[in-house]
Amino acid sequence: MGLNNGESSGAGLLEGSVMVTRLDEVTKPGGAQGIINWGRRWSIFQYPFVTACCGMEYMSWMCSHYDPGRFGAEAPRFSPRQADVMFVVGTISHKQAPVLKRVYDQMCEPKWVIAFGACASSGGFYDNYATVQGVDCIVPVDVYIPGCPPRPEAVLDAVMLLQEKIDREGPERWARREAASK
Amino acid sequence: MELLLISTLKVILVFAIVLGALSPLAGWAERRQSAMIQDRVGPNRASIGGFRAWGLFHPIADVIKLMTKEDFVPATRNRYLHTAAPMIAFWSAVVTFAVIPFGPWLQIANLDIGVLFIFGIASLGVYGATIAGWASNNKYSLLGALRASAMMLSYEVTLGLTVVGVLICFSTVGAQELVVAQAGPIWNWGIFKQPVAFVLFFVAAMAATKRAPFDLPEGESEIVAGYFLEYSGMKFVMFYMGEYIEMFLWSALATVLFFGGWQIPWVPFEGQTWYEFAGVAKFLAVLVAIAFLQMTVRWTLPRFRYDQVMDLGWKMLLPASIGNVVVTAVVIIATPAGGVLQRVALLVGNAVVVLVALAVAAAMKGENKIGVTTEALRTQRSEEAVH
Question: For residue A14, how many other CB atoms are within 10 A of its CB?
Fold first, then answer.
């Protein structure tokens, strides 16, 4: 239960003593990939990383009126192992950055990140020594949501954009990932 | 050869019903029903070729996603137990359906110890949770596993004792014999002989499936995700599916024990072919109704606190179920079998059990609250400090 518990980096097949298996690598682009992308697109389990005032807007988006459940995205899994999309909601300070990175590393492939609001996307108006100037300094971000805070409609738009992105994905995603991690 | 063929056919049919129809539909029904309760739309966007089918494709999408998800194993796990745990949890839930009589013909094995077999195998599910928590080598998993095992063991005692009353009434433990014994008018059903036992059974069964309001083992606010914290992809779903199947198992057992199984009231079974189909349909209808009730409770009540669960199990349900067994046994011995007198006496006995339980609960009220205890402790300490 130490710190270096051996998390997957989602990059290689065998890393240290961690075995990582991925069905993606056996599927060829084309039909099978399309079906897999379809499944991933309609089954987005989120990991909410809520740190600041955007959390209120996140909650209003999660509630009945806007209902992410329509997209099959209503289920939050608080274990990063079972989550697909990390919502970084709010300001990330430098002190919190390692925690965010660690949670991201604990998530299992395939995983995506949505930067929710101005602070998560760029640091917002916290242009100072204590704040990370956008979470893309630490983790790869797939969709940025502008706004301080964003309206729930903007969040829904982001989820749909992410779905489009998932639809376009193929094996090259993994090649990119692996190149980035080396 | 013929026997082998028929058995294979039965196995395929039963598992097609349980694994192919009930459990995927449960995932869909639960999401749609929760949407209904919370006044929202629920999953309805996943489409195949433009057809949305009220969100029925969402479970398919879930399965595809989870099957292609990275299969994570912690570096410090126990290599074999970590893989074996979801198998045990899933297996112990599924295999019990071997003795459930879905219809006069549709039962895989007609064991004469049917109900005992179900309890024996279903209680092995505790091992799935415990081993999962221990083998993951994670402190939150371990805490979840401890909670799960403590809760399941506590409530299985009640579960077993509530059934004893019904077994005394029908003087058999075979699942098929229990159903046959409930033939005839509707008041022959178990629920009209043991209404209290049904309520206790229903509550204890919900606790045994570890679903809300008894989902302490996975309490997100305290221990992240409980004993399956370190599982991803299909292994995680095996726990989840195991829970669903267990829910259907207890619903099926409730149907057998309390709702006459496949018996249609007032219509005797004399080998008619149509009856075999109608019986299966009736059984499944009752099963789904009870499962639906469990889901409704799940989306209505908030989670219990841990000490509240233990209080409810050991101080309320268990004494009530023991009282029920005693009263039922006395009534069955004291009154002539099968008469109106016996039926009325059973109901009166049940009413007595309820009244005594409520009286005891009222008398105990306030005694077991944490606040009161700490208050008493504080008074005691301040008195000690004075002396």
Answer: 9
- Domain residues for B49? 1-68
Rounded to whole angstroms, how far apart are CA atoms B210 and B208?
A: 5
* Alpha-carbon gap, residue B242 to B209, rounded angstroms: 9
Is the pLDDT score of A8 beyond 80? no
Q: Do residues B124 and B189 share a domain?
A: yes
B64 and B153 inside one domain: no
Q: Are residues B233 and B208 in the same domain?
A: yes
- Interstrand relation of A85-89 and A112-116 (parallel, antiparallel or unpaired): parallel
What DSSP letter does each residue of B284-326 carry, written as one string?
Answer: HHHHHHHHHHHHHHHHHSPPPPHHHHHHIIIIIIHHHHHHHHH
- Check CB contact under 8 Å for A72 and B70: no
Q: Which pLDDT value is given to residue A145?
A: 92
Three-class SS state of B257: helix
Mutual orientation of helices B139-170 and B125-135 as an angle, nearest 10°? 170
Q: Where are the alpha helices (DSSP H) in chain B?
A: 2-15, 23-37, 58-67, 79-94, 114-122, 125-135, 139-170, 175-181, 190-193, 195-208, 220-223, 233-258, 273-300, 306-311, 318-334, 340-364, 370-386
User: CB-CB: which of A42, A78, A108 is closest to B232?
Assistant: A108
B24 and B152 housed in the same domain: no
Residue bearing tokens 């797939």:
A142
Say how far residue A104 (Cα) sits from the centre of its chain.
Answer: 8
Distance CA A41, CA A160 (A): 9
- Residues whose CB falls within 8 Å of the CB of residue B5, separated by 6 or more in sequence, listed in order: none
* Extents of the domains making up chain A: 1-42, 44-167
For chain B, list residues whose CB is within 8 angstroms of any CB belonging to chain A: 31, 35, 38-46, 55, 57-58, 60-76, 137-139, 220, 224-225, 228-233, 236
Question: Considering only CA atoms, which of B103, B74, B129, B116 is closest in space to residue B13?
Answer: B103
For A39, the closest chain B residue by CA position comes to B61
Give how far the C-alpha of residue B305 lies from the chain's centroid of Cα atoms, to the nearest Å: 20
Instruction: Give the fold, CATH level 3, of A44-167.
Output: Rossmann fold (3.40.50)
Q: Which of the 8 DSSP states describes residue A36?
A: H
Statement: the pTM of the whole predicted model exceeds 0.90: no
pLDDT single digits (tens) B55-82? 888 888 888 888 888 777 787 777 788 8
